[in-house]
Specification:
The structure is a single chain. The chain is mostly beta strands. The protein contains no helices and 25 strands. The model has no long low-confidence stretch (mean pLDDT 88).
């Protein structure tokens, strides 16, 4: 079982035995060490994109990056493919059927107004990038595409953006909150979930036209959410928090683990599940 992990200050790591042993695969190729986002192409697993810069904002300092790197040989070698001035990249999304079509969410400078902040798209594997006008200068933290046309972006101050033309244009949607939103996931065209600060969980049954807030069972910040299907889903967050639902988010329960570090990202499918977090 092969997994990849992007670390703060340590580059990209890879395991081929389900996590028993890990090896660094970016030393000698990356000019900066902190990885904000990783994405492996579904259509060609040899293609990997790494967005650089520490995406989780800290009050004292955050280590910045130098753009995007790409590997076409499962991490054996890497090439720098642009967005040098992005400083911080919080998410990378690769089209499930085209490894050359990729979207990047750029935070830019996290502590001031940033000209590079926004969404970028490449049709040719990063040789050329185009800025996607998203009509906001707020920090953007999460992006999810339901298919090749329909996508969502969440961010600071309850910002919620929607596209139905593959990212050519974006329009504002009403999330019903001014709290920071950090991640979103749809299990189909109609059912979606958003998580954010103070244990916030939002849910839609009508394709994002209306969002409702679920009863808080925690005040800890939730960093990511993913659903295996319309009923079974997980959310992860601060201090080792894992929430699970088996009824589409009607109710959530805490799953106990012996971890107190912040959990930042989750991936699940029928066969495996993987969660990554702070400090390895």
């Amino acid at each position: 079982m092969t997994y990849y992990f992007g670390s703060v200050g340590g580059g990209v790591w890879k395991t081929i035995d389900g996590g028993l042993e890990w090896s660094n695969i970016s030393d000698g190729y990356f000019k900066t060490g902190s990885v904000g986002a990783l994405a492996v192409s579904e259509s060609d697993p040899n293609v990997i994109y790494a967005g650089m810069g520490e995406a989780c904002i800290r009050p004292v300092m955050t280590s910045h990056g130098d753009g995007v790197y790409r590997s076409t040989d499962a991490g054996d070698t890497w090439s720098h493919i642009g967005l040098d001035e992005s400083r911080t990249i919080s998410q990378v999304i690769v089209h499930p059927k085209n490894s050359d079509l990729v979207y990047v969410a750029v935070q830019g400078d996290q502590y001031t107004a940033s000209k590079t902040r926004g969404i970028y798209r490449s049709f040719d594997g990063g040789e050329n990038w185009e800025y996607q006008d998203n009509t906001t200068n707020r920090d953007l933290f999460g992006v999810h595409f339901v298919d090749s046309k329909i996508g969502w972006i969440v961010g600071d101050g309850g910002i919620l953006l929607h596209t139905n033309d593959g990212g050519n244009t974006w329009r504002h949607q009403n999330s019903g909150t001014d709290q920071t939103l950090l991640a979103c996931h749809f299990s189909g065209l109609q059912k979606g979930w958003i998580v954010g600060e103070n244990g916030l969980i939002l849910h839609t049954d009508d394709g994002g036209k209306n969002w409702s807030s679920k009863t808080h069972i925690t005040r800890k910040t939730l960093r990511d959410v993913m659903f295996l299907d319309s009923q079974n889903g997980w959310a992860v967050g601060e201090n080792g928090l894992i929430l699970f639902t088996n009824n589409g988010g009607q109710n959530w329960q805490v799953e106990q683990i012996k971890v107190t570090e912040n959990l930042l990202d989750i991936y699940v499918n029928k066969w495996i599940s993987c969660i990554v977090g702070a400090h390895g």
